[in-house]
Amino acid sequence: MKKLPKLVTELTLIEQIRRDFHTSQKNIPLGIGDDCAILRPPQDSEVLVTTDFTIEGRHFRRDLHPPESVGHRCLARGLSDLAAMGATPLAAFLSLALPAKMLAESAGRVWIAAFFDGLRALAESHRVPLAGGDTSESSGGKNALILADIILIGTAPKDTALRRSGASAGDVLYVTGQLGGAAAELSNMMRRNRRASTSSTLDHPHLFPEPRLDVGEALIRRRLATACIDLSDGLSSDLAHLCRASRLSAEIEQTALPIHPLARKLGEPTALEAALNGGEDYELLFAAPHSTSLPTSLAGVPVTRIGTLKARRSGHPMMTILSPHGTRAELKSGGWEHFKQPSKPKKSSRPRA
Ligand code: ADP
Ligand code: MG
Predict the structure, then answer these.
(1) With a 6 A CB cut-off, is 184 part of the ligand 1 pocket?
(2) Which residues contact 129 (CB under 8 A, 6 or more apart)?
(3) What is residue 68's three-state secondary structure?
(4) Is residue 46 within 8 Å of 155, Cβ to Cβ?
(5) Which residue's CA lies nearest to atom 7 of ligand 1?
(6) Which residues of the chain are under the pLDDT cut of 50?
(7) How does strand 88-98 pair with strand 130-137?
(8) How far is the CA of 96 from the centre of ligand 1 (A)?
(9) Centre of ligand 1 from the C-alpha of residue 16, in Å
(10) How far apart are alpha carbons 81 and 163 in whole angstroms?
(11) Which residues pair with 130 in a beta bridge?
(12) How crowded is residue 24: how many other Cβ atoms within 10 Å of its Cβ?
């Protein structure tokens, strides 16, 4: 987005967004500019909808995260939910509340333009039109926060969208990409405690995660998966969601986990903790029948077998992990959960999904 003028109001900001995000797609007969957008989903498709908040101090820190990363991650979180269901994005909507002070100051206007640059780069790479939204001044005077709510609309051929609940006992569990990279990059950023400078969006699992849309679409098209979820809260928590929804238990093999090199650098046991509980990797966790032979990569993304699903037995843990020494222990959900009382005091400034 080009530098915003000194006197930027709601209307001039919306006009700039409209110009920057102009698209002429046949499935968006009407985008930004009217009271509603008009979308035309493909015939015989179903419409999938997801919304995700991005809240300053909760999901990002203005002093740590480059604004391009905040825009990228805002959209990536919604796109990753579509990927988890195998959906193809149709349109995005963005509700944005900004402190008045940001528009009045040059640094604030630069921040806003860079936020939209980050969002637009990811939108363009996945051909997702921004078809509307809302723009408001946030309250709170000099303590006012930036709030962004992204709404993603996707489509999938009727009755094909992947759910968390479709897996059966005996199915094999797979993950895409590598785990723990996002937590490792975030902890490095927190340690340095100044805004990260990045010249590229590559190899930044926390700042610029890549939603696995192509993998999700391939899973549907090739009918490979029985159930799927994206890893936003952390493997141990998201696997628990899949187990509960499918009424199954899971056995994970620690040595099979594809741990990200950034996490490995932290050494054990931190690397394992990052891979299991770190969250925000936005990889896909999916189940496929034992009889399905899965390629080693899908849409150019490595796919790794990490365990199996079994029938649930009362009195037995829902998830277990096999250590490299051959001992099996319960795997507890240790990922992120809003409103959870921490068992030991956590740094409240740690931004998390
Ligand atoms: P209304 O008051 O009728 O809701 P607005 O003035 O809020 O309309 O919005 C005008 C147009 O600009 C609409 O098409 C709306 O979707 C779009 N819009 C407003 N804010 C944003 C934003 N942050 N991102 C994208 N589109 C936006
Ligand atoms: Mg209106």
Answers:
(1) no
(2) 21, 23, 25, 28, 31, 91, 92, 123
(3) helix
(4) yes
(5) 134
(6) 345-348
(7) parallel
(8) 10
(9) 12
(10) 11
(11) 92
(12) 8
130 in ligand 1 pocket by Cβ < 6 Å?
Answer: yes
Rounded Cα–Cα distance for residues 312 and 125 (Å): 41
pLDDT of residue 345: 44
In tens, the pLDDT along 77-132 reads: 999 999 999 999 999 999 999 999 999 999 999 999 999 999 999 999 999 999 99
The b/e string for 53-86 (b: 16+ C-beta within 10 A; e otherwise) is ebebebbbbeebbbbbbbbbbbbbbbbbbbbbbb
pLDDT value at residue 25: 86
Q: What per-residue confidence (pLDDT) applies to 348?
A: 44
pLDDT of residue 347: 45
β-bridge mates for residue 229, sequence order: 285
DSSP at 348: T
Q: What digits encode the pLDDT tens for the residues 276-317?
A: 999 999 999 999 999 999 999 999 999 999 999 999 999 999
Which residues have CB under 8 Å from 318's CB, separation 6+? 240, 243, 244, 249, 250, 312
269 cis-preceded (ω within 30 degrees of 0)? yes
Ligand 1, atom 11, residue with closest C-alpha: 33
Of 8, 134, 137, the residue with max ligand 1 atoms within 8 A of its CB, to mutate for a pocket test, comes to 134
* For ligand 1, atom 10: residue with the closest CA: 33
CB 165 within 8 A of CB 244: no
Ligand 1 atom closest to 35 (CA): 3
CA of 134 to the centre of ligand 1 (A): 5
Tell me, what's the pLDDT at 341? 64
